[in-house]
Amino acid sequence: MTRTFDDLVAEAAAAPMEGWDFSWLDGRATEQRPSWGYARTLAGRLGGAEAVLDIQTGGGEVLATALGAASARPALVVATESWPPNVVTATARLHPLGVALVVDPDEPPLPFGDAAFDLVVSRHPVTVWWEEIARVLRPGGTYLAQHVGPHSVFEVVEHFLGPQPESSRNGRHPDRDVARAGAAGLEVADVRDEELRIEFHDIGAVVWFLRKVVWMVPGFTVEAYLPQLHDLHEQLQDGPFVAHSTRFLIEARKPA
């Protein structure tokens, strides 16, 4: 039986938001993954590291997966997180793995001493404090991260907010991070970027996504955007709503 607009929206509006787990979208939306496989790549690096820092770990899902697949466990693994629901989830997930979780407001300085880590990692950081990353890295240490690239999911953003200025579309360009890493004294060893396809199959998936990723449509509520939601629901009767994301893998090293 075809579910109504009201049923789908009500279900998504009541769904839990804890952690950084997107499994609620299973069967409702799909996102192509980068070919390099960040968790797999991270697992390969963990085996050779002594002291690791995972910045903005979210619910700890990716770090836990990588640790489980690593050939050896680093002597010290620390993660930071700022959002209270994620802190609860990440603590429960990472403490049994021996990971220390530090509640950090996501602004400089990082609460660690100079040259504390030989590997600093992050997946989809909201902000990147390059000077702080360089400070806490040991000489010869590495920053390895997957960043969100420019104009990600802008098809959804512009459906709700209208055309956006070019400056906002390209604010996360990899060239910017390469320049900032260099300015902080790091040497960029590798940058790879890919455009990936996203499909939303029902309006509930869109509502849940915008509740979860709050910076896409700031202040989003069902009531405030009801006309746009109805219009998108009608479009979805003819097939999935297609959007695109960009992701880039960046590796930077602190000179020895």
From TrEMBL:
| InterPro entries the record matches | 23S_rRNA_MeTrnsfrase_RlmA (IPR052939), Methyltransf_11 (IPR013216), SAM-dependent_MTases_sf (IPR029063)
Q: Name one GO biological process term.
A: methylation
Q: Keyword check for Repeat, yes or no.
A: no
* SUPFAM superfamilies, alphabetized: S-adenosyl-L-methionine-dependent methyltransferases
Q: Which UniProt keywords apply?
A: Methyltransferase, Transferase
- Which Gene3D superfamilies has this protein been placed in? Vaccinia Virus protein VP39
Top-level lineage group: Bacteria
Q: Where is the Methyltransferase type domain?
A: 53-144
Molecular function per GO: S-adenosylmethionine-dependent methyltransferase activity
The UniProt record lists the keyword DNA damage: no
Q: Which Pfam families is this protein grouped with?
A: Methyltransf_11
Protein name, entry field = Methyltransferase type 11
